[in-house]
Known about the structure:
Order of helices and strands: HHHHHEE
Largest sheet: 2 strands, antiparallel
CATH superfamily: Tetratricopeptide repeat domain
Helix content: 40-55%
Shape: globular
Number of helices: 5
Number of domains: 1
CATH architecture: Alpha Horseshoe
Number of strands: 2
Strand content: under 5%
Amino acid sequence: MTSFEEYKNLGNTHYQANEYDLACTYYEKALAVDSTNAVGHSNLAMALIKLGKHCDALAQCELGLQCKPSDKIEQKLLWRMSTAREELFKQSECGTNSKTNPGTNPGTNPGTNPGTNPGTNPGTNPGGHKTVDNNTVEIPIVEVDSLPLKYQ
């Protein structure tokens, strides 16, 4: 049987070759072996973002945060969650959702966005961070590998 690491490494190889569909396939296979590995959810989320599947990426971030990841992986998941939400917001401003599938989020109710509680007061998300509103999650500032250029 192929291990989580072997599938993850195959996913990473395809991701680095800009073959995001194939990367997703291998990350999903890795998660089929170990669904509690936050790295798998994080990697899958990034590949989904590259494919423009932002709702699905949000769902993977939520699942990854539920796995109680290390601080470094938690920060990556939160950054990827923020990136996916930002892209969804941009699309909603333009009235386009052509690259997202809001009704097919794994681990969520159809037609809902993970991490939101419509009609409820702000609280905390599964990662334990304060939810300010449906589009904003407060996260602690910690050291990260690198910041995207637009934040430097």
